[in-house]
Amino acid sequence: MKIASDAWNFFLPLAAASIFFFYAGIPITGAVTVVLALFVLFFFRDPSREISSNPAAAVSPADGTVARIDHDWYDETTGEKRIRISIFLTIFNVHINRFPVSGKIVSMEFREGKYLAAFNHLASEENSQSIVVINSDYGKVTVKQIVGLIARRIVCSARQGDMAVKGERYGLIRFGSRMDITFPANTELKVKVKDKVQGGSSVLAHLVS
Fold it and tell me: CA 146 to CA 119: how far, in whole Å?
């Protein structure tokens, strides 16, 4: 399985530390660092996904559980009442993030904020986050990468003016997090609260022209 390149910043020091501890005759500490090194590879795994060919289908930007759905959410980024889906990711989920739709990226910004636990719904507004707005053929779709209590680092390659391709990788959040997606109010949802979703392969909604 492919491993995200960010993994090596954590894996290599841990692997070196484990060799040192075993060589120094401290096997218990060495074993702990080996377990941590293997967990890093597990966390940064990047599996292939089959992406829906339906142009109206919006796919999940991340693996996780649908934690909340708001049907009358005011999105200050677009100035509209929209549908919002919140996805909670544990440290055991794949953390590669993917574009939910294809279209032109009309804005991308990073907002500094708090580090509330990602399962806390206040995290959507108060935590540090990146906000990407995509102008698709079916209207604007916004997607947020939101840090959590443990996750303190957002990686985002999306840039204003670039073209987003549905299902294509564009970033990750390190070690537990949350993602919010907002759709036009007339969007037909395909998920409900507590559903498990996979980034790229799970269809969250069908957009209406």
Answer: 11
- Among residues 139, 122, 141, 118, the alpha carbon closest in space to that of 131 is found at 141
What is the strand order of the sheet 169-173 is part of?
96-98, 169-173, 154-156
Catalytic residue among 60, 86, 130, 177: 177
Classify the C-alpha dihedral 147-177-122-204 as positive or negative: positive
Q: Are 66 and 178 in contact (CB under 8 A)?
A: no
Is 124 annotated as catalytic? Answer: no
Question: What pLDDT digit, counting tens, does each position of 90-144 carry?
Answer: 888 988 999 999 999 999 999 988 888 777 788 888 888 999 999 999 999 999 9
Q: Secondary structure of the chain: what % helix, strand, coil (to 5)?
A: 20, 40, 40
Which parts of the chain fold into alpha helices (H)? 8-23, 27-43, 123-126
Contact present, 96 and 113 (Cβ < 8 Å): no
